[in-house]
Amino acid sequence: MMICSVGEEHEGSLELEPKVLYENAPYFHLLVRVEFRVMTASIETRVLCAAWHGFVQQLIVLEERGQGEAKLVAMLPEELSLVFRPTDHAGNMGVEGKVGARDDGYCASIDISALPCDQEVFGAFVEDARMLADHMTRVASRKPVWARP
What we know:
The chain is an alpha+beta fold. Helices cover 25% and strands 46% of the residues. It has one domain (2-142): Transcriptional Co-activator pc4, Chain A. It is globular and about 40 Å long.
């Protein structure tokens, strides 16, 4: 699900894509891709299901009221920390935060500063995020087919 896109002038995007959802697990894997002009970065991080549910509730309120903010933080905040908020009184939204990676002896990160979100894309993202949260709730008691004995 692509969540933000900016016009030709900035040539950038931010995408969040759920990758692995183990049933009964307290977290899921999320692929994060950031693109800006010629620079591209992607990481796979883990997000607590409870954090996703809280984020979705904040997103719904943000979309309905056009005020406030919605925060998404991965299990390791240095890997993913995003805040969605209005950028004006016309209902336009933006996202800022950090996407990064850390390993033995190195770290790398990209700071996102007020990346504007297309209104239609943002609305579709809110719906996709809500559907993922609903899916997590429905399948919480089942095991993946490949994990069954």
